[in-house]
Amino acid sequence: MRDLPRHNARLAAENLTVTRGGVPILQGVSFTLNPGEVLILRGPNGSGKTTLLRTLAGLQPPLAGEVQAEPETITYGAHADGLKATLSVEENLRFWASVHGQSDITNAVEGFNLAGLVERPSANLSAGQKRRLGLARLLVTGRPIWLLDEPTVSLDVPSVQLFADAVRAHVAQGGAALIATHIDLGLEAASFDIGPYKADPATASDPAHSDGFDEAFL
Ligand SMILES: Nc1ncnc2c1ncn2[C@@H]1O[C@H](COP(=O)(O)OP(=O)(O)OP(=O)(O)O)[C@@H](O)[C@H]1O
């Protein structure tokens, strides 16, 4: 069983303003994610969930406010699977594990029912199988804070269950997860609704902080 550094799995957002294409999308976002917690990120399409997750993950700077988390505690599961197409399932997991200084992929293979697929190039997986492999990578990072963007897209019901089980096991070991999803995962979790944090359109983009181009998120 993995031994996650319990005290590291805390993330706090302090009065965050997040932007997309230089335009403020959310402002005044504050919340805390504690070890052992699952928080479901709620908000309609286009409300800024991806933008917030990317900011929390350190992939883009906030326009204002602060993200507090210990270094190298966060792993971000994006919309895109980010798999290496020519590598097999096992090679993908071993590669990802080595990037994070880990070596054991057993939990990842078993936890996402990949044993029968280990030798298959990831390019030849179905959409749901790719998604399972993408999620299995979470288990080889050794990182305690999972930030996940629509993790169940393409998953069938049994696979959603595998994912929910993985999250349960993760938080039972002191991990934490913030999950943007529109479906009920059957998890014991609080919700964080970003609706009240919609940025005031009058808060014009600050050119000093504008990215200056039309961002495309991968
Ligand atoms: N390339 C872009 N440049 C600037 N703004 C964009 C771009 N793409 C999307 N936006 C806008 O940024 C806002 C926030 O988008 P974001 O992807 O964070 O929302 P979301 O809540 O994750 O949506 P969904 O539930 O549909 O995934 C939306 O209003 C969207 O229209």
TrEMBL record:
<dbReference type="GO" id="GO:0005524">
    <property type="term" value="F:ATP binding"/>
</dbReference>
<protein>
    <submittedName>
        <fullName>Heme ABC exporter ATP-binding protein CcmA</fullName>
    </submittedName>
</protein>
<dbReference type="InterPro" id="IPR003593">
    <property type="entry name" value="AAA+_ATPase"/>
</dbReference>
<keyword id="KW-0813">Transport</keyword>
<keyword id="KW-0067">ATP-binding</keyword>
<keyword id="KW-0547">Nucleotide-binding</keyword>
<dbReference type="InterPro" id="IPR027417">
    <property type="entry name" value="P-loop_NTPase"/>
</dbReference>
<keyword id="KW-0472">Membrane</keyword>
<keyword id="KW-1278">Translocase</keyword>
<dbReference type="Pfam" id="PF00005">
    <property type="entry name" value="ABC_tran"/>
</dbReference>
<dbReference type="InterPro" id="IPR017871">
    <property type="entry name" value="ABC_transporter-like_CS"/>
</dbReference>
<feature type="domain" description="ABC transporter">
    <location>
        <begin position="11"/>
        <end position="216"/>
    </location>
</feature>
<keyword id="KW-0201">Cytochrome c-type biogenesis</keyword>
<dbReference type="InterPro" id="IPR005895">
    <property type="entry name" value="ABC_transptr_haem_export_CcmA"/>
</dbReference>
<dbReference type="InterPro" id="IPR003439">
    <property type="entry name" value="ABC_transporter-like_ATP-bd"/>
</dbReference>
